[in-house]
Specification:
By secondary structure, the chain is mainly α. It has one domain. The protein is about 80% helix and about 0% strand. Helix 9 runs antiparallel to helix 10. The chain starts with a helix and ends with a helix.
Length: about 190
């Protein structure tokens, strides 16, 4: 058994969720500092376009499609190929639906502001997409998860290039995370 799994098993669901919330607060600080020093605020604000057609078509529907593909992969491939060390299962198995929705929303907003709104806008598509993969380091030792996060990262980056709309990629990220998180809560595990 690897160290990560042992640490995760020793933590309660609440302790692990607190760590996730702490991570999101760190993202808020990082995003704020980077916004102040790297980004033209007017250009950044212009990335939030309330085009509902775009948000639904390129955000929500693509997020649902990716979620369906992930659910299929979970059914087809053995658990050891897609298990992230028990983190997602432990974070989302317990708690209210509202808590899960809020956590998924905050994660989607913070990560997409950082990776698409700041890093991709300033340093480009490749750097943002690769950094997104690296930040999800717990997937790096699992080939199926690694391929999935690479496709997801570059796909979200491309959709951001295509739409220039942060709300689209936030919606996509949120829909994907919340559907998988609610699946875990409902079934008690990924499968």
């Amino acid at each position: 058994m690897n160290k990560q799994r042992i640490i995760i098993q020793e933590m309660t669901s609440r302790e692990l969720k607190n760590q996730v919330w702490l991570t999101q607060m760190i993202w808020v600080i990082i995003n704020t500092v980077l916004l102040i020093f790297l980004v033209d605020i007017a250009e950044f604000i212009a990335l939030f376009d309330w085009d509902l057609t775009e948000i639904v078509l390129y955000g929500c529907l693509i997020g649902l499609l990716i979620s369906i593909i992930n659910s299929w992969m979970i059914q087809v491939f053995p658990k050891e190929t897609w298990d992230d060390g028990g983190i997602n299962e432990k974070v989302f198995r317990e708690g209210s639906k509202l808590e899960i929705v809020l956590l998924c929303l905050v994660i989607a907003v913070m990560e997409e502001i950082l990776f698409r709104g700041i890093i991709q806008s300033v340093f480009g598509y490749w750097i943002a997409s690769l950094l997104f993969v690296v930040v999800h380091f717990r997937y790096l030792k699992k080939p199926l998860l690694l391929v999935s996060i690479i496709f997801l990262s570059f796909g979200i980056g491309y959709i951001f290039i295509y739409t220039s709309n942060l709300l689209v990629v936030i919606a996509l990220h949120f829909v994907l995370d919340v559907t998988l998180a609610l699946r875990i809560r409902r079934k008690g595990e990924w499968g």
